[in-house]
Design brief:
The chain is an alpha+beta fold. Helices cover about 65% and strands about 20% of the residues. The strands form two sheets. Strands 6-5-4-1-7 form a five-stranded antiparallel sheet. A two-stranded antiparallel ribbon has the order 2-3. A hairpin with a 5-residue loop joins strand 5 and strand 6.
Amino acid sequence: MPGIVRLMPLLSIHFMTITNDLMPKLRLIGLTLFALSVSAVVHAEETRYVSDELNTWVRSGPGDNYRLAGTVTAGEAVTLLQTNDATQYGQVRDSNGRTAWIPLKELTSEPSFKTRVPDLESQVKTLTDKLTNIDTTWNQRTADMQKKVAESDGVINGLKDQNQKLKNELIVAQKKVSAANLQLDDKQRTIIMQWFMYGGGVLGVGLILGLVLPRLVPSRKRKDRWMN
């Protein structure tokens, strides 16, 4: 027991020495952890897209001094959980539920080219289908217009033919009227000539009778007188 009592002061001095040596280290570790906890800003979960690099490495912590934890697919959509402004790293969660840290420069808020290509192809296909429909509709309308024009041309040609036929019939009718007028004029002239001939004959007969009768009547009276 006396030996232990004599060792107690020595043990106390040694413990104090060890404590004095550890305290700065513990303070440094505490300050480091505090700095990391302060600099790591927690965000509401946001969607980010990995850049289009062939391989993007992720790490187990927010810095280049942490071990590599694998890669993420170029253009993959990930969920941003938090960021570290001091190291410019962000903690992300991929589609498989894996969490890791990635440089913020490797993230973008816009969909990557790999993600946009299918959308662009879909938009191109939609526009192509619309143009095809417009072209088909336009061709159908053009065909309908051409059909209507052809029908109109047929109607116009039919009207022209009918008009020409009526003109020809009119010419024939006019010729017939002219011929009828000529025949009427000839008949009128014939009738007039006949009337002239009849009138002349009657006049001639009257003249003859007028000349002959006076000579015949007196001669009979004279004979009667001589007989008496």
